[in-house]
Amino acid sequence: MTATVAILGGGIGGLSAAHELAERGFDVAVYEQRDRFGGKARSVPVPDSGGDGRPLPGEHGFRFFPGFYRHVTDTMARIPYADNDRGVADNLVSTSQMLLASGDGGVTLPTETPGSVRAWRELLTSMFARDQVPGEESNFFVDRMLTFLSSSATRRESEYEHTPWWEFIDAEHRSRAFRQYIGYGITQSLVAMRPQVSSTRTIGRIYVQMLRGLFDPSIDADALLNGPTNEVWIDPWVDYLDSLGADLHPGTEVRRVHCDGRRVTGVTIDDGREREIAADYYVAAVPVEGLCHLLTDDLRRAAPSLRGVERLDTAWMNGLQFYLTEDVPTAAGHVVYYDSPWALTSISQRQFWDDDAFDLTECADGEVAGVLSVIVSDWESPGVVYDKPARECTPEEIRAEVWIQMKRHLGDELRAEAVADWFLDPAIEHTDDGVVNREPLLINTAGSLRHRPDAATEIPNLTLAADYVRTETDLACMESANEAARRATNAIIERSGADVPTCDLWEFREPAVFEPLKRLDAVRHRFGRPHPGEMSKPLWRTALNARSALRF
């Protein structure tokens, strides 16, 4: 008899679990609260923007596919799309640049692997030794990265997991420029990680993987989709799942998960009519705040590992789009506004979109020629126009503030009269009690790993497929959600005894040259000795302070 699986949530984790299970013959049903699948990754039609054409495409924030993504792109390659050999994965387009913009200028970095020693020197100088950052401090940061690269897995988990990144790079004792460009920089802007509280284990691993994307010519350091997410990925995915026999239920809220103290016995759903459904296995693919809402005393007793999710932290990382009457490429890739108070990043999307996949001229009244999608990663710091943090601003104030902050970096390239329309992520809601974010993002604070559960819970018929699950990826992103779904699928295969292949899983790859040093560090760590790089940090501090004192 075919085992039945109820998947609670239709974001990337839920759809990934449905994909892997349905392809292996399981009877799958997916229950999604919203009327569109895709979770935070979904694109949405902008209300009242259709005019005489299609609605404009809006989104929670732009999609970003760094080079270390392997799980989610493998799944995408198995989603049929037109005549593409690799399905939806062929809708990914590589960028060639990343603009590091600041108020006094900017540096354009290639996102393609440098082809000469001179190009490598220019790249590393631009990344770590910009004009604003003293050269000796850049060298210190390189030393810190080498320390991390040569550290053992046991040290990373038992020591660096509990060390904030800010402390690891000694940012408090460095220059303001160091803190701004290296302490915050790409870290906060691209993954919403607050360096003062985020785990060194997480940030260090991601930093290494992002650098590896530049070092390894066989992978794309940075890619994005060639059209709005639902048009070129999510909707074809839903169609494929439907063809596999998956039962898809949009607009269906999960109200309660029933547990008898040992197993999940059913789930109460509401699609306009409240009722209880039952299955052999259940996959919770809801975000962390959603799982906290569903936890009961029976679930906590049956699966003690679930208790920790209530202690996980979230942050705000939401976006808005500007629809322009002219295409403003800004850069052939992402723009990081290094010293913007709200930690902005953006992408000018039209240059990457395929008109055959999505013709922007068919939207609204045909006047929109460009889409500038922007993400705000810092909702706590005051802005430059209203002197208020984003979370205290009205939607119109957010729009005005973001535009001015970008214009201070890009100058005359942005013209206010070119803005035909704009759209703020609908997860940002203004209520009588203040601004609420309905879709916050998990952040890996120092020491939080112990609070994150495995995909296979202690309850034999309950698994998890979400970005807060323990994964190799170890970051709140689409890749982690997909990996968690694969781990959940493998647990169901094992527990059900199904004679089907398990899902592929990949580990991060780091430069092999550091393996002997990692083994040496594992021995040092076992005997309670510090990493040799930690002993050099006080020497660096003394040398840098002495040099500063000698300056007149």
Major sheet attributes: 7 strands, mixed
Question: What is the subunit organization of this protein?
Answer: single chain
Query: How many strand elements?
Result: 24
- Percent in helix: 25-40%
Strand content: 15-25%
The CATH homology group name of the largest domain: FAD/NAD(P)-binding domain
Describe the structure concisely for a colleague:
This protein is α+β, with helices and mostly antiparallel strands and 552 residues long.
Task: Outline the structure in words.
The strands form seven sheets. This protein has a seven-stranded mixed beta sheet with strand order 8-7-17-18-19-16-20, with helices on both faces. Strands 10-2-1-14-24 form a five-stranded parallel beta sheet, covered by helices on one side. Strand 1, helix 1 and strand 2 (27-31) form a beta-alpha-beta unit. Helix 1 (12-23) runs parallel beside helix 13 and helix 4 packs antiparallel against helix 15. It has 15 helices and 24 strands. By secondary structure, it is an alpha+beta fold. 33% of the residues lie in helices and 20% in strands. The protein folds into three domains: 4-35 and 250-314 and 443-496, 3-Layer(bba) Sandwich (FAD/NAD(P)-binding domain), CATH 3.50.50.60; 51-62 and 317-437, D-Amino Acid Oxidase, Chain A, domain 2, CATH 3.30.9; 132-208 and 513-550, no CATH class. The mean pLDDT is 90.
